[in-house]
Amino acid sequence: MILDTLQTVGVFVLTLGILVSIHEYGHFWVARRCGVKVLRFSIGFGKSLWRWHDKQGTEFVIAAIPLGGYVKMLDEREGPVAESESHLSFNRQPVLARIAIVAAGPAANFLLAIFSLWLMYVVGLRTVIPQVGSVVPGSPAAIAGIKAGDEVISVDAKQTPSWQSVNMALISSLGESKTITLNIKAGEPGKKPTGAVESKKVSVTNWLVDGEQPNPISALGLIPFSLKVPAVIGKVIQGGAAQKAGLIRGDKIIAMDGVVVNDWLQWVKLIRQYPHKRIKVQLLRNDKPMFVELTPEAKDSNGQHIGYIGAAVQPVSWPKELIRTQQFGPVIALVKGVKTTWSLTMMTFESIWKMIIGLVSVKNLSGPITIAKVATASLQAGFENFLYFLGMLSVSLGVLNLLPIPVLDGGHLLFYLVEWVKGKPLSETIQLAGLRIGVALVMFVMILALYNDVSRLF
């Protein structure tokens, strides 16, 4: 449990560190080229853990609280500046230079997203085709005539090579009343679909308006096809309950306390119900039946004690015809990286707008706890999945910073754009009032996101 927590914290710090470093480096790089003196480049807040200076006198800092960062520039509004250095002050720069410096942070995040997605496509993303395993009777998908074995080719003209892309395409319809068009190819579950492409119309009304972390795929009544994984031990962790009971790699679980075990998922569900309780397990070892006594250990999960034994499943290979690899050369990968970044950007803006007007619940806001858990899960799923998550999170950070809220980059951009149009800056009174409102709004959103995180834990 402690190792899992440390791993989650480590992945979170790494992920946020990359995003913040790139964002702040965008401000830093453009500020230097506009002739502004940079006093400090900090990753994190609070007490300095590590610091150094470059030849131009900029102090670089790694601080204790890894929840952001900042670039501090010479500015006459923040303290006295020697006359000999006044030309190096941020506030003395032309308005277009200030706009460029402020916009460089979000721009760097979009460039990071393009790079992450480009690398993902170059490395190659292996996914399972979006084949339907079953359809919930009476669901919107069932009413539309979608059947088990169908492959989802596209959603509202958006190509869907994987279930992840199906989910992302459906998210754009959250909160709406509309007809969603799914192009499908008929087939049998577990086999490559070979039928003709057909269009299926799914009608939704105020779709998942109040949904918290909605699952659009299951909301339509679609259950993805999955392989039945036998309850065979693939790995035993040193010192765990499984090893203490004498379980070894290759053991096939047959029954537990008289309950027949059909697959690994059922086995895991049963184990979770018996923390610190002795159970009798029937298994096959080298085709010979035998019994062992097993006492699962306990760990906390969402406020509950569940059993676990320290064993992993023996991997099962998917049929080749159900696997799709998205891998491209550098040029095509770059084009796809740009298109995916643009699509994620538009989806993020749209989701924020829907949240503002009430079409999407604010319960979907996520904070650092959710980010840490998802980052860890994506890394465990494979390097290419982590690259996708990093790109998606980088887009989110770029979009959020462009919102016209004082204290964020977008708020500063709004002030400077008004100054550019009017030919003179807004009064300090207006700017200070906007800053106070911006700070209050950002604090409210941060507290709400953290509250949502904690609520999901319990």
Describe this structure as you would to a colleague.
By secondary structure, the chain is an alpha+beta fold. It is built from twelve helices and 18 strands. The chain has a four-stranded antiparallel beta sheet. Strands 12-11-13-14 form a four-stranded antiparallel beta sheet. Strands 1-2 form a two-stranded antiparallel sheet.
Give me the secondary-structure topology.
Layout: H1 2-33, E1 38-53, E2 59-73, H2 95-123, E3 125-128, E4 132-135, H3 140-144, E5 151-155, E6 158-159, H4 163-171, E7 178-185, E8 197-204, H5 216-219, E9 222-224, E10 233-236, H6 241-245, E11 252-256, E12 259-260, H7 264-272, E13 279-285, E14 288-294, E15 297-301, E16 304-308, E17 311-313, E18 323-326, H8 330-357, H9 368-381, H10 383-402, H11 409-422, H12 428-457
Antiparallel strand pairs: 1-2, 3-18, 4-9, 5-6, 5-7, 7-8, 10-17, 11-12, 11-13, 13-14, 15-16
